[in-house]
Design goal:
- The chain is mostly helical and 113 residues long.
- It has a single domain (25-112), classed as Cytochrome c-like domain (Cytochrome Bc1 Complex, Chain D, domain 2), CATH 1.10.760.10.
- The protein is built from six helices and two strands.
- It has a two-stranded antiparallel ribbon.
- Bound molecules: heme C (HEC).
- Residues 34-35, 37-39, 49, 53-56, 58, 63-64, 67, 72, 75-76, 80, 88-89, 92, 104, 108 line the site of heme C.
Length: 113
């Protein structure tokens, strides 16, 4: 009995594992979830929250386009503060893994390409 069910058991375990692997969020999904509210799906920052918070236009070649990968990474991970130390943008180091942030750097980069 067990012998003939074993292949099916294995197959269903594999199916479950594949489903979990596919469920890891992509950069596009992370951007929509964590960033688009302020920076907009198009990166221009023209959402209600974007205008209110003063979110930067991520399509600006002379602005965001000039940031290095390391600067983009640090901004996403640690957020931004003004000269008085007041938070301008929260950091996402607690919500996103280093790999997810690296993927987001590439995703943000597309806006100035
Ligand atoms: C609550 C609104 C808000 C959210 C959510 C938000 N940001 Fe920001 N972001 C800002 C603000 C405000 C600034 C400008 C900070 C400053 O003045 O230095 C900024 C700046 C940036 C910059 C620097 C751009 C430049 O030209 O210097 C990058 C890159 C960036 N955000 C990416 C992201 C990414 C990626 C996410 C999602 C993981 C995100 N932001 C989520 C509000 C937000």
């Amino acid at each position: 009995m067990l012998r003939c069910h074993a292949p099916f058991l294995l197959l269903s375990l594999l199916t479950v594992a594949t489903a979990f692997a596919a469920a890891a969020p992509t950069a596009a999904q992370n951007y929509e979830k964590h960033c688009a509210g302020c920076h907009g799906t198009d990166g221009k920052g023209q959402t209600r929250l974007g205008r209110k918070s003063g979110a930067k236009n991520l399509t600006d070649k002379a602005g965001a386009g000039k940031l290095t990968d390391a600067e983009l990474f640090r901004t996403i991970q640690a957020g931004r503060r003004d000269d008085q130390g007041r938070e301008r943008m929260e950091g996402f180091g607690n919500d996103l893994s280093a790999a997810e942030i690296t993927d987001l750097v590439a995703y943000v980069r597309r806006f100035t390409k």
